[in-house]
């Protein structure tokens, strides 16, 4: 099973993200992210044998402090990835990510070593189209995270929510 750990927005935040996403005039060939797939990845785990999923799910229960994430920068990254990202990453988010990384290491699972660039992907192949910024930042009160399976058909299934 292909797994990742993510912040998964609730209805209000998802609607705000969809507003930014829906107001951008995407070029032909762009692939906007479906509203029900909008999320912020904390760790991509990759393939895990089905028999280890319960162990991984249990190990990823780490302490978490509620924090506010302000998604306030809309931009297009190299390769046509249109994103909405925070200008400043809250200390509690860094701590959560570090605690999850330690849990993954204890399970001998891979942990990405490249710099963390938290973002919500609005579209792929956007040909350098700048997403339309919202008049106000998207304010996201983060009180949970999720273990998610990436399905073969491109959909996502939340396996477990952590509060």
Mind describing the biggest β-sheet?
Answer: 5 strands, antiparallel
Helix content: 10-25%
Poorly predicted tracts of residues: none
**Oligomeric composition of the shown chains:** single chain
Tally of alpha and pi helices: 3
Indicate the CATH topology: Cyclic Phosphodiesterase, Chain: A
How much of the polypeptide forms β-strand, as a percent range?
25-35%
Q: Which class of secondary structure composition applies to the elements?
A: alpha+beta
N-end to C-end Cα span = 23 Å
Please write the string of helix (H) and strand (E) elements: EHEEHEEHEEEE
Shape: globular
How many strands appear in the DSSP assignment?
9
CATH architecture: Alpha-Beta Complex
CATH class: Alpha Beta
Q: How are the strands ordered across the major sheet?
A: 2-6-5-4-7
Please state the average pLDDT score.
93
Please identify which CATH superfamily we are dealing with.
Cyclic phosphodiesterase
Radius of gyration over alpha carbons? 16 Å
Number of domains: 1
Layout: helices, strands, pairs:
Layout: E1 2-7, H1 11-22, E2 31-32, E3 40-47, H2 53-59, E4 67-77, E5 81-86, H3 91-106, E6 120-124, E7 138-142, E8 145-150, E9 156-162
Antiparallel strand pairs: 1-3, 1-8, 2-6, 4-5, 4-7, 5-6, 8-9
């Amino acid at each position: 099973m292909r797994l990742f750990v993510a912040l998964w927005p609730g209805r209000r935040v998802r609607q705000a993200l969809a507003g930014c996403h829906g107001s951008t005039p995407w070029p032909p060939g762009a692939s906007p992210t479906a509203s029900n797939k909008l999320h912020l990845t904390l760790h991509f785990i990759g393939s895990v044998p089905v028999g280890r999923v319960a162990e991984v799910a249990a190990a990823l229960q780490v302490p978490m402090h509620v924090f506010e994430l302000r998604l306030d920068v809309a931009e297009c990254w190299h390769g046509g990835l249109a994103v909405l990202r925070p200008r400043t990453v809250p200390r509690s988010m860094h701590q959560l990510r570090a605690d999850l990384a330690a849990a993954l290491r204890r399970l001998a699972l891979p942990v990405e070593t490249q710099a963390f660039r938290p973002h919500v992907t609005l579209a792929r192949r956007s040909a350098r189209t700048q997403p339309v910024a919202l008049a106000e930042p998207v304010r996201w009160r983060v009180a949970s995270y999720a273990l998610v399976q990436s399905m073969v058909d491109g959909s996502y299934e939340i396996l477990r929510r952590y509060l």
